[in-house]
Design a protein that fits this description.
The chain has five helices and 13 strands. It is an alpha+beta fold. The strands form two sheets. It has an eight-stranded mixed beta sheet, with helices on both faces. Strands 12-11-10-9-13 form a five-stranded antiparallel beta sheet, with no helix packed on it. α2 crosses α4 and α2 crosses α5. The radius of gyration is 18 Å and the shape is globular. It starts with a strand and ends with a strand. The relative contact order is 0.14. The mean pLDDT is about 95. The structure holds biotin (BTN). Biotin binds next to α1, β4, β7 and β8.
């Protein structure tokens, strides 16, 4: 089924392996094509993890962007703007304790409620196709044991059932709203909003797991391209481009 929700064209499926993988195969799709599935049988997370995608329990959405830019440094900001859009949608729906863990895990009460997987796929040598995958836990009443300590859903946090399509449309409107400043290189508004929505942005003692090392420090905001500033022992500021952040303890209360 195809649903028009300007500027988005939504292709809805009852079941897919992964919405990101399906959209990747739609080589001729125009910008803002979306793929949504009621369930995924091979939902993927970052770092080769799987993404629990039970039928009707979550939003499983992928959006195609065809950014006309030669500045690759602005690409990671798309995931940050998506996290802002998800966080705002959750707040509007009354979810308490919404937070963003750098770069783009959306939490509620310190548990993960949404994950974002941005992947680049190229259509020939010249143009970049960016696939933004968003998973949001909506109607899960519980999680399997390995996730029960770390995951949550809108239903668990608010006690109410979510109409997945309504949540999808509300989120798409937010994504379209935040894509505008991104398109016009107005990154400060996205960074500022991200920093407002994240308790991790500043003054948090965290450890960051990089590919082959773990460093600890205190967060000191984001750079203009969305990298995390970390003040390590001795006062040196490290710029983190990718890594897994864990909060150690609150330093500013
Ligand atoms: C993460 O590890 O936090 C990212 C999770 C991303 C899950 C979404 S669900 C829709 C899209 N299709 C996938 O296979 N993954 C993303």
């Amino acid at each position: 089924m195809i649903i028009h929700h300007p500027p988005f064209i939504i292709h809805h499926f009852t079941s897919l392996g992964s919405t990101n993988d399906h959209l990747k195969e739609m080589i001729a799709a125009p910008e803002f094509t979306c793929v949504v599935a009621d369930q995924q049988t091979a939902g993927r997370g970052r770092r080769e993890r799987t993404w629990l995608s039970s039928p009707g329990a979550g939003l499983y959405l992928s959006i195609l962007f065809l950014p006309k830019t030669d500045s690759l440094s602005k690409i990671p900001l798309i995931s940050l703007l998506a996290a802002v859009a998800v966080a705002e949608t959750l707040i509007e729906r009354g979810v308490p304790g919404v937070d963003i863990k750098w770069p783009n895990d959306v939490l509620a009460g310190e548990r993960k409620i949404s994950g974002i997987l941005a992947e680049a796929a190229s259509a020939g040598s010249e143009s970049l196709r960016l696939i933004l995958g968003v998973g949001v836990n909506l109607n899960h009443q519980s999680f399997p044991p390995e996730l029960s300590e770390t995951a949550t859903s809108v239903a668990i946090e608010t006690g109410g059932r979510v109409v997945v399509e309504a949540f999808r449309d509300q989120l798409l409107e937010k994504i379209a709203r935040w894509y505008e400043p991104w398109r016009h290189d107005k990154f400060a508004s996205i960074i500022n909003r991200w920093q407002q929505l994240s308790t991790y942005a500043r003054d948090q003692q965290v450890s960051v797991t990089l590919d082959d090392e773990k460093i600890t420090g205190v967060t000191a905001g984001l750079t203009e391209t969305g990298a995390l500033r970390l003040v390590v022992d001795g006062g040196e500021v490290k710029i983190i481009l990718a890594g897994e952040v864990t909060r150690l303890r609150k330093t500013a209360e």
